[in-house]
Amino acid sequence: MSTVKITIKKNGPYRVEAPEGSIELVDADGNKYDLTGKPAFSLCRCGGSVTKPFCDGTHSRIGFQAAESAVKRADGTS
Fold first, then answer.
1. Is residue 53 domain-resident?
2. Edge to edge, what strands does the sheet with 14-17 contain?
3. d(CA 78, CA 28)
4. Full residue range of the structural domain in which residue 56 is found
C-alpha cells in the first residue's frame, strides 16, 4: 500500500508527498492534472496563486494567516 503524507504548512500550502503515480489530482470538471515526475507538490490554500491549484509562494507575499491546529469536535469525538 502506498503511503500518502499531507502536511499543513504554517501559513502556507498543503504539501502532498506520495510515490509517483499513486495520487490522482482532478479538477472540478473531472480533468486530471499531470503529476508525472512529481512525487511531492504543494497545493495553494491562500487563494492567491496564479498556478492554482498549485502553490506559487503568493501566501508569503500577501501575509496569509491560517489556523493550522486540528480542532476537536464539541461532542468529544474526532
1. yes
2. 5-8, 14-17, 40-43
3. 28
4. 1-20+39-67
43: buried, middle or exposed (CB in 10 Å: 19+, 13-18, 0-12)? middle
Residue 73, domain member (yes or no): no
pLDDT digits (tens, 9 = 90+) for 23-44: 999 999 999 999 999 999 999 9
Q: Tens digit of pLDDT for each residue in 41-50?
A: 999 999 999 9
Looking at residue 5, which CATH number applies to its domain? 3.40.5.90
Number of domains in the chain: 1
